[in-house]
Backbone:
């Protein structure tokens, strides 16, 4: 196993932080003429979670096989990123279900 390159690790952490906290322009409202499509956004998010899971599994399997290009640091980051994205998706799902239940229990 090789020694950890601190500069490389810091640059990876900065890139991941940029992915987690995108520029503020990404959260602006849809243009006046267009509508934001919630279902498309939800499908895209679920797809991203699936891709994170697949990538983490691939990297973990590569490290377990002892491939020379496998890096423990990158593998651990990918696994943690996949775990965090799945946990976030489960929390969002629970909030959506709670909101649906509250709407269904409303009396008019």
Residues:
């Amino acid at each position: 196993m090789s020694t950890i390159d601190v500069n490389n690790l810091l640059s990876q952490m900065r890139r991941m932080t940029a992915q987690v906290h995108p520029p503020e322009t990404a959260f602006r409202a849809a243009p006046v003429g267009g509508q934001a499509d919630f279902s498309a956004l939800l499908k895209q998010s679920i797809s991203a979670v699936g891709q994170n899971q697949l990538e983490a599994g691939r990297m973990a399997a590569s490290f377990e096989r002892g491939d020379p290009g496998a890096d423990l640091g990158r593998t651990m980051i990918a696994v943690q990123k996949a775990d965090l994205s799945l946990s976030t998706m489960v929390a969002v799902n629970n909030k959506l279900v709670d909101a649906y239940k509250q709407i269904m229990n409303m009396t008019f």
